[in-house]
């Protein structure tokens, strides 16, 4: 269903009765849209929902119960401050963008997005404290055991000062070297239309990494280096074998961080990907 650029909608009504089986809902650039009816958050056949540049949007459904949803973009919803509660597990959602929104806090139920692979978060350029390996530069390295663990990669996209209304776009390619051997890039991503510094998170599950890099593993101690191009700083949260997770260890291109952060309270993205606190 396509409402793109419709300027007549101020409140999106309940669509669950008239169109309960829609799979795509495009509300991009609906400049006067302020509110979306609660029952829209219960369209369990909806797979793709885009609200890019709805600059007046302030109210989304209080809860999302959308078992089929795979893609949700809130890019440019600059007045949106609250993200909906996720009452049940939504393992289908793989992509979520909150770039250029006013959202600064996620609800505890965010952990129910158990399938989330890519998350564009609010503007910022500081790697979060919970990331246990951090680097100022474009490479980071750590040691893993006999199997590739799950990791969460955080990239800080730091832009030079731009003139008013200018935007910045570039392609980021992330290479992974295992014991000095390179495979195809684990990720290639176009960042388009950025105006501010942003953080971007990418979760790579151990099953995928083991499939791609498993034959490069040699014994019980293996060196991994991650090298995204043209990044100001980056971090990786990974269950590594670099030594005590909470001691300060500084390498040429990696810092194992201890700043008083309580590692028993993992962010939802990590918990949902199988990280433990043990």
From TrEMBL:
Please name the InterPro entries in this protein's record. Answer: LRR_dom_sf (IPR032675), RPS4B/Roq1-like_LRR (IPR058546)
The GO annotation for biological process reads:
defense response
Keyword Signal: yes or no?
A: no
Q: Which residues form the Disease resistance protein RPS4B/Roq1-like leucine-rich repeats domain?
A: 66-121
Keyword check for Ribonucleoprotein: no
Q: What keywords is this UniProt entry annotated with? A: Plant defense
Q: Which Gene3D superfamilies does the UniProt record give?
A: Ribonuclease Inhibitor
* PANTHER family with a match to the protein in the record: OS12G0206100 PROTEIN, PLANT BROAD-SPECTRUM MILDEW RESISTANCE PROTEIN RPW8
- Spell out the protein name for this chain: Disease resistance protein RPS4B/Roq1-like leucine-rich repeats domain-containing protein
This chain's source organism reads Fagus sylvatica
């Amino acid at each position: 269903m396509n409402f793109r650029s419709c300027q007549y909608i101020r409140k999106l009504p309940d669509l669950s009765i008239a169109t309960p089986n829609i799979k795509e809902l495009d509300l991009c650039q609906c400049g006067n849209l302020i509110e979306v009816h609660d029952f829209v958050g219960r369209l369990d056949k909806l797979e793709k929902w885009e609200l890019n540049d709805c600059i007046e949007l302030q109210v989304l459904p209080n809860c999302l119960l959308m078992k089929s949803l795979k893609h949700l973009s809130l890019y440019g919803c600059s007045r949106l401050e609250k993200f909906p509660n996720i009452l049940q597990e939504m393992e289908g959602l793989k992509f979520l963008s909150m770039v250029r929104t006013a959202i600064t806090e996620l609800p505890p139920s965010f952990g129910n997005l158990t399938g989330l692979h890519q998350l564009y978060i609010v503007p910022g350029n500081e790697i979060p404290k919970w990331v246990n390996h951090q680097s100022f530069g474009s490479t980071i390295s750590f040691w893993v055991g006999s199997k590739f663990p799950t990791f969460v990669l955080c990239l800080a996209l730091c832009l030079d000062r731009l003139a008013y209304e200018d935007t910045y776009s570039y392609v980021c390619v992330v290479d992974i070297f295992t014991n000095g051997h390179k495979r195809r890039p684990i990720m290639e991503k176009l960042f388009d239309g950025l105006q501010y510094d942003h953080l971007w998170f990418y979760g790579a599950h151990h099953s995928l990494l083991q499939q791609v890099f498993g034959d490069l593993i040699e014994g019980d101690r293996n060196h991994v280096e991650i090298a995204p191009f043209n990044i100001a700083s980056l971090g990786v949260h990974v269950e590594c074998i670099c030594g005590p997770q909470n001691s300060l260890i500084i390498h040429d291109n990696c810092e194992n961080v201890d700043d008083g952060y309580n590692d028993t309270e993992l962010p939802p993205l990590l918990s949902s990907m199988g990280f433990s606190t043990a």
